Amino acid sequence: MEQITARVETELAEEIERRASEHDVSKSEATRTLLERGTEYAELENENKRLRNQLQALTARQNEHEELVEYVEREKSLQTRREERNAAPAWERFRMWLLGYDTSGD
After folding, report:
1. Number of structural domains, the chain?
2. Within a domain: 2
3. What is the number of other CB atoms lying within 10 angstroms of the CB of residue 43?
4. Measuring CA to CA, which of 1, 43, 51, 81 is 20 to 30 A from 34?
5. Looking only at Cα atoms, what is the longest distance across the chain?
6. CA end-to-end span of the chain, whole Å?
């Protein structure tokens, strides 16, 4: 183990002493524990940011897929109506045209 000497604010030194006495360890051990937890916290924050970005990208992708599904469903509906119109006899197609049979969607 390497030795490091550092100066800290009075409040931090008091916190280290309080934690050391609470857990019945030396100030050095309490300081090591706090430094390790700080490092773990920073790593967890980075992982949290990465996962949030991944979630955001997946949500955007899902929204794009939902829009695509809606578009395909509209197109299927239009295609069905076109097929109905094309299969109808001429007099029925004329009636549809005359009365404004809507082929542009619901």
Report:
1. 1
2. no
3. 10
4. 51
5. 98
6. 74
